Amino acid sequence: MTSNQSILDRRAKAIPRGIATASPLAVARAENGEIWDVEGRRFVDFASGIAVTNTGHRHPKVMAAAQAQAEKFGHVAFQVMAYEPYVELAERLNALAPIADAKSIFFTTGAEATENAVKIARAHTGRPGVITFTGAFHGRTQLTLAMTGKAASYRTKGAPPSIGVFHVPFPIPHHGVTEEDSLRALAHVFKADVTPQEVAAIVIEPVQGEGGFYQVPTNFMRKLREICDTYGICLVTDEVQSGFARTGRMFATEHYDIEPDLMPIAKALGGGFPISGVIGKAEIMDAADPGGLGGTYGGNPISCAAALAVLDVIEEEGLCRRADEVGAKMLSRLHDFRRSNTLRPIGDVRGLGAMVAFELVKERGGHEPDPDATKAVTSAALDAGLILLSCGYYANTIRLLAPLTIDMGHLDEGLDMLEDALTQTS
Ligand SMILES: Cc1ncc(COP(=O)(O)O)c(C=O)c1O
């Protein structure tokens, strides 16, 4: 039998260490909320391939749609010939997005989506500046690296300085940054670094993903909308991680009752097949000249077909409602864990729909981050059979990203394993 170790040994020789793998495992197969490694061990999946399999691994409808498309044609390039699945996907998303008159374009990765949103905003405004937030994660290409609001280990070893990109502290009151502090910092950026008339876009994740699942406060988002309206800046809500029913709405932006100018999307859209995109106000989306946008693989037909099936599944299986149910169950257990005196100390517990996270702290009742405990808990959870991901500006957050279709018994089982891990590491 192939062992995990034999694959990891080959990986170490063949693949650079720059792509880190969170677990010492190699996957053999996966089904909805479960994964089996090459040694036949089963795991409950609370990672969903980093927020991709909201509809579960290998959802039968998504697989059937991809297979049916593969029987017709695979790649032709949308830039060579148009095809209906791309057009239909754009039509469906334009109708779903919280934007009155929308157009959509497709790419492959989340970084491409955020990068193109900025490109479109720059073409529309004719301005260079971009404002993002501390703790933000927008990707690993050179521009999106600059936009990402955490230097280590993303922006090290020769990454260029963030020319034209300015970071504002993201409001997290229990870590000492209030909404007022953030707005004051933004005013300072406008004074000291770049005038608002030179800013093309303010880019913000409605709920930070890699940054730690911190939600943008309602008033703060509305204030950003006002500021963008005042100065003609595009408000870009990065929905790459928070989109597609994860937060209990199709898009997390819908929690705010604002209309964004542009929304990068990716991850869960394809249900495991690579596709990303930008949805935006039609007049802004049309700013780039023909030929200025695109990419050979953008909007791959098999991925478009899978994405159309994902949208059907979200609707037919009521996954927005299910996200709230899954999230409520997670939050209730996490609050119990926090109250317990026998488990590892937990600080803030938070969640919007099924985008749920908690912080590990040095002392019960405090907020001082404990990154070592965070590593210990994810590792103990893996030993128990649960795949978990950490994240966070302070590296002390564990995020629970179960598929929204997870069997409720498997959800309980995963939460029991988490409790065991918190007990063992206390
Ligand atoms: C909010 C957000 N934007 C952009 C990205 C980049 O996506 P990708 O890794 O597909 O390039 C991510 C990835 O985690 C993300 O969470």
Automatic annotation (TrEMBL):
E.C. number: 2.6.1.19
Signal peptide coordinates: none
Cofactor requirements of the protein: pyridoxal 5'-phosphate
TM stretches of this protein: none
Single GO MF descriptor: 4-aminobutyrate:2-oxoglutarate transaminase activity
Biological processes, Gene Ontology terms: gamma-aminobutyric acid metabolic process
InterPro entries: 4NH2But_aminotransferase_bac (IPR004632), Aminotrans_3 (IPR005814), Aminotrans_3_PPA_site (IPR049704), Class-III_PLP-dep_AT (IPR050103), PyrdxlP-dep_Trfase (IPR015424), PyrdxlP-dep_Trfase_major (IPR015421), PyrdxlP-dep_Trfase_small (IPR015422)
SUPFAM superfamilies: PLP-dependent transferases (SSF53383)
NCBIfam families, per the entry: GABAtrnsam
Name by which UniProt lists this protein: 4-aminobutyrate--2-oxoglutarate transaminase
Organism: Algicella marina
Lineage per the UniProt record: Bacteria, Pseudomonadati, Pseudomonadota, Alphaproteobacteria, Rhodobacterales
